[in-house]
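Dear colleague,

Thank you for sharing your sequence with our group. We've completed the structure prediction you requested, and as agreed, I am returning the results in plain text so they can be pasted directly into your records. Please verify that the sequence below matches your submission; if there's any discrepancy, let me know and we will rerun it promptly.
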Amino acid sequence: MTDVRIQAQNLSKQFILHQQNGVQLDVLQQLNFTAKSGECLIFSGRSGSGKSTLLKMIYGNYLATGGSLQVKQGDTWVEMVGADPRSVVQLRRHTIGYVSQFLKTIPRVSTLNVVMEPALERGWSEDAARKRAEDLLSRLNIPSRLWALAPSTFSGGEQQRVNIARGFMVDWDVLLLDEPTASLDETNRQVVVDLMQEAKAKGAAMVGIFHDQTVRQAIGDKQFNVSANEVSSHVQ
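Please find the predicted structure tokens below.
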């Protein structure tokens, strides 16, 4: 499975700091890379080089300043540069999953419902969604006594595991991961590595930031140095 799912050409991002007299900050300049089905592309580079910004651009949180950033939805390429909000919503519902650094949920919504939501939005039955969510939460060592509680009451590590369960709830064509194992112990870190390997085997094009070298080497197929604008098959 070597279908290209993401392709960036001369991609740039500039922030304008309006509170500092309109100072222009060039964060990303002329980037070129692709991500393929069944592979994991790891973003690397110095701190502040724009790795998380780049993930958010793929997800549609930030708009590019220049160049092209295309994501394949089914057999159709969607241009993220200038994409309308409706197209972005459809991509997020059907094509792109995103495990961010922090879980953002509606207060008082139960953990089980938070995890089930992506599947329900795709039309899964409630029984099927519940079964999948319970399996993921169990694998990630979230006790069943907590499933009815809102994750806002959990510790940071527990919230991150809920976030991961939600991210792996359905089979995404593209899966973005921003430090998914940062606050996890060794046992749960291995569970996440297993989930990522399973997603790759099903054909997901994975793009992620991982500061843990063990995780990078276990899951990575290629490495894109954002600072140097270079792709390498040698994952460090």
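Summary note from our side: The two ends are 24 Å apart (CA to CA).

Kind regards,
the structure core
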